[in-house]
Amino acid sequence: MTGWQGEHQPGGWQQAGLPRPSRTPAVLSIAAIIVIVGTVITIVLVNRGGGSPDPIAGPQSSTSRPPSTRLSSSSRPPTFRSTAPTTTRSPNGRTVDNAESRISFTIPGDWRPDPAAKVDVRGVNFSGAAAYGAYECGGAGYTRAFAVSAAVQNPTDKDVSLEKTATTFTAAFGEKYYPNAKVAEPAFRNARVDGKQAVLAVAKVTPAPKNAACEADAGEVAILAVDLDNATATRPRGIALLVIAADLSGGPNTPGTLSAPAIESVLSSAHIR
């Protein structure tokens, strides 16, 4: 998939600058998650209900593995500020803890965290980045998959649901990181993360690669959307989004694309701070 970009798209979506939800030690339990290698994103606090989400400018990816994403900011050691994403080693890999999105998740040893990297999708800054399978091809930089997160809300659509939010951002990420791609409607699975209601949305992406040797010809965007359940009388609830965009086929043989179980493992490691 192509490199990180930061195009601001005007619209109703905003960062969810909301109080942190109460902590509960529950674990994400997703019954039979089916992932089609994709990208995951964090969404906004909003009430479930009717009303369709605003149109989105989504991720663009290409190559048998979506065109690898080149992190826009240079890799540097994590900054351990209260609001900055941090990474720590764990028995199963490395934990990415993003205070801004209220989400932490674990990545395997062959993923590379980049706490300084951010991507703007629909006017929302997604951070806490991690990428897998970086490579150079045809003079451009690519990655096979990346993960980012954010907490969002849409004050202009008080009836927005987890499903609508996930649909909006799967399309936005798919279109942004897979240029000229067709992004399918996502398939949904109900889930719970640390006791909070959640959905997993997986959307297939069909790119139109310009360089078949370098770019993916199939990809996926997967988003875990979690209801933060922190609405007030004057503010809608927030929705935390963990987004994974990944190549499924196409492009070079090395690095290879991720398997569905590998993507599911990252999603299943999510916790709410």
Structural account:
This protein has two helices and 18 strands. It is mostly beta strands. The chain has one domain. The strands form three sheets. Strands 1, 2, 3, 7, 8, 9, 12, 13, 14, 15, 16 and 17 form a twelve-stranded mixed β-sheet that branches. Strands 4-5-6-18 form a four-stranded antiparallel β-sheet.
Termini Cα gap: 30 Å
What is the average of the pLDDT values? 74
3D shape: globular
Q: Helical percent range?
A: under 10%
**Which ranges are low-confidence, i.e. pLDDT below 50, for 5 or more consecutive residues?**
3-11, 18-83
Secondary-structure content class: mainly beta
Query: What would you call the quaternary organization?
Result: single chain
Percent strand equals 35-45%
Largest sheet: 12 strands, mixed
Order of helices and strands: EEEEEEEEEEEEHEEEEEHE
Count of β-strands? 18
How many helix segments? 2
Task: Kindly give the count of domains.
Answer: 1
Give a brief description.
The chain has helices at residues 162-177, 260-268, and strands at 14-15, 29-30, 44-45, 86-90, 93-98, 103-107, 111-114, 119-121, 124-132, 135-137, 140-142, 145-153, 182-183, 187-193, 196-206, 216-227, 239-250, 271-272. It is mainly beta. The two termini are 30 Å apart.
Layout of helices and strands, plus pairs?
Blueprint: E1 14-15, E2 29-30, E3 44-45, E4 86-90, E5 93-98, E6 103-107, E7 111-114, E8 119-121, E9 124-132, E10 135-137, E11 140-142, E12 145-153, H1 162-177, E13 182-183, E14 187-193, E15 196-206, E16 216-227, E17 239-250, H2 260-268, E18 271-272
Parallel strand pairs: 3-12
Antiparallel strand pairs: 1-12, 2-14, 4-5, 5-6, 6-18, 7-9, 8-9, 9-12, 10-11, 12-17, 13-15, 14-15, 15-16, 16-17
